[in-house]
Amino acid sequence: MSSHYIKSTARKKMVIIASYFDGETYGLLGPQMAATVIQENTAFDCIVIAVAREDDKSVLKNALKDYFGGEKSIVGFSTLSGREDLFTLAKDLKDEGAITILAGPQADVDYSGEKEWQDHPHRFRGLAANFSFSMHGPAEQAITLLKNLEGDEWQDTPGLLYVREDGRTIQNPKKAWNERFLSKVRWDNIYRIGESGFTPLNIDTGQVLQHIGCPYAARQRRAEVDYPVSLDRNTGQKVILLLKGCSFCDVAVDKGFCGALNMETVVGQIHSLPEATDGKKIPFELINENPLPSLMRLLMEVNIRGIRLSQISLILRADWFLNGEKYLREALRLAEDMEVRIVLTSVGFESFDDRILSNLNKGLNVETNIKAIRLMRQVKEEFPHQWGYSRADGAIHGFIHPTPWDTQKTSENMQEIIARYALAPDILPDHSIPLIIHHASGLGDWIREIERTEKVQFKRHATIIGWWKLGDRFTL
Q1: Cα angle vertex 271, ends 186, 394, to 5°?
Q2: Residues 150, 246: one domain?
Q3: Beta carbons within 10 angstroms of residue 7's beta carbon
Q4: Which end of the chain is more exposed for a tag (fewer CB within 10 A), N or C?
Q5: Which tens digits make up the pLDDT trace of 395-432?
Q6: Are residues 188 and 234 in the same domain?
Q7: CA-to-CA distance for 55 and 48, rounded, in angstroms?
């Protein structure tokens, strides 16, 4: 077993398992920040294991046994991306005596199950059988749990979900976010599965948290979502929903918008990023859905402290990109002096059909998407060395297809737009992403209402609802 993570025997051990893609070298902010909090505030050494779908789980289990030795295994799971292989792994470990903890986005609803599943057997029953506990909310809540595992006080842990002996699920109120725990991340605590155990993963792309949640999800809106084409009888039937954020976004439901972090906290995270061989911080993704208004100040604060940057990657809505044009140009002029690249790595275009955009509750239309693309290209001409936005720059923009509302007309509309504005060379990804409906997203409510009114059932794939697979009709 690698000696990189062997610590003093006086300290206990814990691991956090997270979903990963084989061959990638990006960091995992959420799990690695949680491991940092646990490492520095408890008696536990904590590392992150990045697990790809194709990894041999028997090799992983043996590596875990080697890591824990004769100690009780405590294994957290976070950022699982709906992977059933990791859900199965958690249950196997739990059945073998480990304490398994589900954390990260949607940990509460994935543990407790889909709405009213007790009355609808086809719905997702939750993962309570797979995990000893679930923890929803800030990572520092784990401090209370880990300090009290030996007694009964663990039941008072904020944000904790567990099942009592009588079968009732208990959910404790979660804590508010505390910036004291968000200013530092250890980036050397992530590992992959090697032939002889866990081997360090040297990352070349990190993340910096500036916004918790999405401002677009801060306010609830009334939306009308069309019936799926498979059930539409040309009557224009719609389902009325109250939505926070985009209709497909389960993170919007999970977090909403908790606000922006203090600039000192953000700069602290940047300071903790590894440096490349040239002495500059590795490229990082700025987690902020509306970063342009504060981007100039961020660059100035970093520059004052003598921190050298290489690249900042941004994720933006098309309308907020347009609204921030003035701020972007100011930031790019300073970035030019600092020799920093700004790359717009993802814009959530999602579709180039107005009907589909409306059903996704994007709050914008195709015209806005096209205006944003024009501006992206124009800025590239003005700042060719400091600005990037295209596939050639490593960008992967949001394009959701197929959807339940695809018709020959929507396909023709999009093909016309794609050809007219030459989107294939620089904007469209290699592959579109099919619409994914998490059971706790706004579209989860849409599916359940359609099932109720039409007396049909859609197949569940663990946490995901298979809108593409309509089951048999049934009689209530």
Answers
A1: 85
A2: no
A3: 12
A4: C
A5: 999 999 999 999 999 999 999 999 999 999 999 999 99
A6: no
A7: 15
Q: What is the pLDDT of residues 13-33, one digit of tens each?
A: 999 999 999 999 999 999 999
Contact criterion met (CB below 8 Å) for 38 and 139? yes
Q: Which of 110, 163, 167 is nearest to 133 (CA)?
A: 163
With contact defined as beta carbons under 8 Å apart, do 101 and 134 qualify?
Answer: yes
Same domain (yes/no): 122, 225 = no
Instruction: Give residue 119's domain range.
Output: 12-200
The residues that bridge with 309 in the sheet, in sequence order, are 281
| Among 420, 403, 321, 419, CA closest to 358 | 403
Question: Do 136 and 188 fall into the same domain?
Answer: yes
Residue 426 placed within a domain: yes
The tokens for 371 are 């205006």
| 188 and 213 inside one domain | no
Rg from Cα positions in the chain: 23
- The torsion of the CA quartet 371, 373, 378, 383, rounded to 10 degrees, works out to 130
- 235 lies in a domain? yes
172, pLDDT greater than 70:
yes
Cβ neighbours, 10 Å, residue 394: 13
Longest dimension (CA), the chain: 69
Strands lying side by side in the sheet with 44-52: 169-171, 160-163, 133-135, 99-102, 74-78, 12-20, 44-52, 190-194, 197-200
Q: What is the dihedral of CA 146, 150, 154, 155, to 10 degrees?
A: 160
3-state secondary structure of 38: helix
What's the CA angle centered on 427, arms 83 and 329, to 5 degrees? 110
Residue with tokens 């030019």: 336
Whether residue 196 is found in the same domain as residue 315: no
Q: How many domains does the chain have?
A: 2
* Encoded tokens for 38: 């646990």
What does residue 258 show for φ and ψ, rounded to 5 degrees?
-100, 0
Query: What's the CA gap between 406 and 356, in Å, rounded?
Result: 8
Write down the residue that tokens 């959910």 correspond to: 171
What is the DSSP pairing of strand 284-287 with strand 206-209?
Answer: parallel
| Residue 451 placed within a domain | no
Q: Residue 285 has what pLDDT? A: 98
Contacts of 3 by beta carbon, 8 Å cutoff, 6+ apart: none
Are residue 310 and residue 264 in the same domain, yes or no?
yes
pTM of the predicted model over 0.85: yes
- Do residue 215 and residue 299 come from a single domain? yes
Nearest-angstrom CA–CA distance, 268 and 263: 8
Q: Phi and psi dihedrals of 387, rounded to 5?
A: -120, 140
Quick one: tokens of 278?
Answer: 């040239």
Residue 259 forms part of a structural domain: yes
pLDDT tier at 236, thresholds 50, 70, 90: confident
The structure tokens 């737009």 sit at 417
